[in-house]
Structures are given as C-alpha cells and as structure tokens.
Design goal:
The structure is a homodimer of 360-residue chains. Chain A has helices at 17-27, 40-49, 70-83, 97-105, 150-162, 172-195, 202-205, 210-216, 223-232, 234-254, 263-279, 304-315, 344-353, and strands at residues 10-13, 33-36, 53-54, 63-66, 88-91, 115-118, 139-143, 166-170, 292-299, 321-326, 332-339, 357-358. Chain A is of the alpha/beta class and 360 residues long. Chain A folds into three domains: 10-170, NAD(P)-binding Rossmann-like Domain (Rossmann fold, 3-Layer(aba) Sandwich); 176-279, 6-phosphogluconate dehydrogenase C-terminal like domain (6-phosphogluconate dehydrogenase C-terminal fold); 292-358, ACT domain (Alpha-Beta Plaits), CATH 3.30.70.260. In chain A, strands 3-2-1-4-5 form a five-stranded parallel sheet, with helices on both faces. In chain A, helix 3 (70-83) crosses helix 4 and helix 6 packs across helix 10 (234-254). Strand 10 of chain A pairs antiparallel with strand 9 of chain B.
Chain lengths: 360, 360
C-alpha cells in the first residue's frame, strides 16, 4: 500500500468520471472513501466498481469533494458545508469564480471551502469510465481565496498530491481566464468550424483528413454541459473571441486580393504567428523525454499482431505506446510502436531479422 | 509481383513526400519509374531509397507526375509537356483551378494534361518520409476538364488505382471549394486559435489538454507552403471565412448577457449545430460502418500484450484498430481494441473468462 497524505475519510459527492476516479485513486491508497450520488443506480455501480462505500449516519469526513455539474455545484457545496460542520469542502467544476461568488452571496461558511479543478478527462463519462490513474501528471488547479486559512486548505493539497496530480495555485479569476483560453475558446472555435460542415456537399466531406477531424473533434461535446460552462465563464471567453474576430478580419482582408503587393507576406506572417503560438505549448508528456517509434507492416489476419508482440517480448523491449493504422481495402496494417529511444535501433534490427517489414 | 494497370515508364518530377511515395508504390508493382528533382541531393536519396532510376536521353514516358510546390506547378507541367510530346502529364498540387488556368493562358497543350490531387500526407517531408502505401484507401481527386479526351485521361485513373487510392472525379472549381472547406479553412482556424497563445501567460498554457493541442496541431505548418495554397485558392477560402465570421458574431452576442432570457438556449443551439456538423463526417475508414471497441487493462510488463493478442487470436476475432494508452507512472496500460460490432460481446466475454480486466 502506498503511503497517503490524507487521513480520511473522504466523501465524494457525484460518481461520474471525476468522482469515481477520485474514489478509485484514494481507495488504492488505503483511504476510507464514502460515495454519494443523486442516482441510486450510478451509486451502486460506483460502489461495485471499488470507488468507495455508501454513507453512514456516523460519518465524519475530513474532506468532501463535490463532483457534480457546474450549475448545481454551489448548491451542493453549501449543503455539504451545512451537513458536515467538521469537513473541508472542495469541488472540481471547470469554472471557479461563479461558485465562490454564489457561496458568498448565500452566506455559506467559505472558511471551510476552497474550489479546485483537475484538468483531466476523457471522452467517456459515467462511473465505469473512472480510472485510478486519471489524474497522474495532470495539472490540478487550487483556486485560492482569502477566506480560508492556509492550515485548513492543506487537505486539498494532500488530495491532489495523493492522486499524483500536479498542484497549481491560481486565483479564481486567473483560473477562469486560463481555461477560457485553453479549453472554452477551443470548444467554441471547434463548434464554429463544425457548423460550416452542416450544409457542405457530401463529396467535399469525403475528402476530409486528419486535420479537419482534429479541428472538429471537441465539437461533438454535450450542449447542456457547455451551456453551463460558457454561461458561467462568458466574459473571459467573449474577450478572447473578440480578439480572435479581429485576427479573422485581418486574415480575410489578406485574402481579398492575394496578388496585391505584400499580400503574400501578410499571409506568411499570419501563419508564422500561429507557428509561434503552437511552439509555446509545453511538451505532450509534461516533460521533454520523448519516445522513438518505428512502423511495422502487419498482414491483416488473426494472429499476426500476436506474433509481432511475442517477438517484441523475446527481444526484451517494453512498448511505451502503440498505434495500429488500418486503411480500408488494404491487406496490410501499420503498427506504430513507441519505445525508449535507446531501444529503437536494436528492435528495428531484430524485427527485420525476423522477417518483419519496417515501414519507417 | 502485383499486376499493374499502367504500362510505364512513369516519370516523377519532384521527390518530396508525394513524389517518392508514388515512385515507391509504382516500383513495387514492377513499373519502370524515372525520378527527377531540382536538388541533386534529394534525387540521389530518392534513387537509393528505391523510388526510381535517373532520367536517360531516350526516355519516352507514358505518364509524367509533377510533384512540386504549387507556385511552380504550372511552369513545370508546361516544361514537361514540351519535353515529352508523347506523355500524358498530371500534377498533385492541392489547388486545381489556378494551374489549369495558367497553362491555358500560356497556350500549353492541355489535351495531354489533367490535374489531380491525392488527399494524403504526413507531418514529415522529404524523400525519406516516402511510403509505398501512403495513398492506400485515401481519396485522390481527378480534376476533369473538357480539353482532354477520355482515352488520354485513363492513364491518370490507372495511376490512382495502381497506388490503391480511391478515385474521385470533380471539376477544378468543385475541388477547390471542397479543399477550402476541409483543409484550407481548418488551417486558417487553427492558425487563428494558435495566435491567441502568443501572448498568453505560461501558467495558462500549462493547463492545456488534448482539446487545445488538436485544435492547433496544423498551425505548426510551413508558412511558405500556405502562402502558395491560400494565395491560389483565396476566394473559396475567403467566402467560408466570411460565413464563419457571421457565426462568430452570433456566438459573441449569445455570450454578451448569458443570464438574459433565452441566452442559454442560444448557446445550446450553437453547440448542437456543431454536433450536427461533426456527425456528417464519414467514418474514419471512409465508409459508414463503425467498429465497436472494448478497453482491456494490461499490466505494464513485457509479454502481457503478446498474451492478450494470442488470446484474441484464439477467440478468432480480427482486430480492426487498436490504441494503447499508457499513463505516466501507472503500472497499468489500457488497450482499446476495435472489432466488428457483432464480435464485441463474444470477445468481451471470452477475454473476461481468461482473466482480463475489461475497463469499459
């Protein structure tokens, strides 16, 4: 059993993806987790799944984590503060100023509340999508305010560190501006791009490649959830969209007469400014270590992948990541195998010696 | 040796990613391929790599494929038409009206020219990024015009089918409008999103997740190339950007007063319209058949994946796609296995019976 910072018990209210993942992660560290949910069905699934136990009358939790939709977060936090007068309460909603303001407006005891927001998620939802390792290496913002003492707030730090996440401190305003930029505006931009597809000819859509698919992926998100998020963070999002509209106007102008003197330079400067923006994003793995990869051609019949992985096992190399590409109509798949950089040359050689075709 | 439709020889001018991939694919079918490039270094790499042989004085190619940057495409096509009076000439530039217009304006013999555009690519460039299977299952547009006879043009169809691509016929105008929507506007939108990151605080960028990364991925593209593409397809791109600006204004208005009556409904309608747009994209595999997937938890040690694939082989189910997820620090990986929908229940049951933990 891994040592934990929290003492527990920890009460988790709402057993969707985040709540269940928190429960699984803390139980794995031996902490007593109590789970609660408005849906008895979801609650029983989460309990069976190992996220925690049902509440009991004598519960006296150290920490309560409210994991419910943004529009009911403040209400449930207030209820939990009342019901458990010894507990510190946090929430995981993706906006941070609105719930704090709402709690203050209703006279809640914010000396025991501090909001937080784990930047972790996946496309699936519900208790069965929960994963004990969901938060490992992911940023988790603590939205500091001056109504809670440092000592009281340490339980939130302990929660974040116990779950393997990276603790980030910000004011609620700073948090909301940051997620407007890195999450809410990308959602809007993706939605706008996807809207352009609604009346496009099917022949055009058949030409779509990975670039368009990536651009519109998050546009498939749930409207109800995004009404809540965008509604609660409208001003920071609107500000960035206004700046983006200015950039868009400039781009449209540059395309107005593309053979005019200087038009090409204008377009090049736009694309180059985008290059600069992308380059500012930190590395994918939150650190600079990268894996090396090789692509192996695999016949599209049962048993071929098993043979490949058997032989990788024989070579003694551990797979770090793997992607199988399979083109329609092709008799061949491509397995892109990521390994530690120092292993790639040996693996390539050994696989080639065993008759595998290495594609690149 | 696979049978080929083309007779050959085929002359490939320009040995970047596309030219080299065409050479490799055709040589694999036993066709005599001649490669040429303005860079002697790239040419010799491509020849060593197996893309074709150097030109000889007596060459009399059946087909010439011009694979050079868009801004010199018309010029090189005209030169090749002159130099090889028996050859049919095509190009692979990502705009199709501009080169045809330029050739006609210069009085070139377009009864032997027909433009084309393979929708295939990868992030790497240069001859060593070439792959014989690059075009398999990818759309390849033939930009039909009335100056070339059906019989002359069959060589282009043969090229496309020999390389395993999917032949798509469009007029040059229709092609340019389609790629404006599915490729050029996504590039501009990605660039605009990325530009917003240039002066953002680093603390905000540290919160970036996959949504933002996907949204800005293509913004890392080469400015020089995009000046050429956007310059040559400015009007169709501009039209779509103007429509997008209208949508953006509407979205900004909806966020102006998010608590006003009806504001929530407006936002929900915007997101829902994006949902509708995304749903119109054909399945990843270019057809509507979808795979079903299950996620299996795999211990992070050599041999575990091999055992999993052995057992999938024993069950007799064919893998259609596969994704291995590996969280940093975690002792467990998740293998997402895509199979035909009718096989997923049986596979889930059989794997569970063999002791595998199915995550969802």
């Amino acid at each position: 059993m891994v040592e934990s910072r929290l003492v527990g018990p920890v009460r988790v209210v709402g057993v969707g993806l985040l709540g269940t993942s928190i429960g699984l992660g803390l139980q794995g560290r031996g902490i007593d987790v109590i789970v609660a949910d408005a849906s008895p069905t979801n609650l029983s699934i989460a309990i069976d799944y190992g996220a925690g136990r049902a509440a009991a009358a004598e519960d006296d939790p150290q920490l309560i984590v409210v994991c419910v939709p943004p529009d009911v977060t403040a209400e449930i936090v207030a209820r939990e503060l009342d019901a458990y007068p010894n507990a510190i309460v946090t929430d995981v909603a993706s906006v941070k100023l609105a719930p704090l303001d709402a709690l203050r407006a209703h006279g809640a005891d914010v000396s025991r509340y501090i909001g937080s927001h784990p930047l972790a998620g996946r496309e699936r939802g519900g208790p069965l999508s929960g994963r004990a390792d969901l938060f490992i290496g992911r940023p988790w913002v603590v939205a500091a305010h001056d109504g809670i003492s440092y000592q009281q707030a340490t339980a939130i730090d302990d929660l974040i560190l116990d779950l393997g996440a990276i603790l980030v401190e910000m004011s609620p305003e700073e948090h909301d501006r940051a997620v407007a930029l890195v999450s809410h505006v990308p959602q809007v931009v993706s939605t706008l791009m996807a809207q352009r597809l609604t009346d496009a000819p099917a022949s055009a859509l058949n030409l779509a490649g990975q670039g368009l698919r990536d651009a519109v992926r998050v546009a498939a998100s749930d409207p109800e959830l995004w009404v809540q998020i965008l509604g609660a963070n409208a001003e920071p999002v609107r500000k960035i969209l206004l700046a983006l509209r200015g950039d868009l106007d400039r781009f449209i102008d540059a395309l107005d007469n593309p053979v005019a003197p200087g038009a090409g330079r204008k377009i090049a400067e736009e694309i180059a400014a985008g290059n600069t923006g992308v380059a500012r994003l930190p590395g994918k793995h939150g650190q600079d270590r990268r894996f090396a990869s090789l692509v192996v051609m695999v016949d599209d019949k049962p048993g071929q992948l098993a043979r490949l992985f058997n032989e990788i096992g024989e070579v003694g190399v551990n797979l770090e990541d793997l992607r199988l590409e399979h083109s329609p109509g092709a008799q061949i798949g491509l397995a892109e195998i990521s390994v530690l950089p120092e292993a790639v040359a040996r693996l390539t050689e050994e696989l080639a010696a065993r008759g595998w075709r290495i594609a690149g």
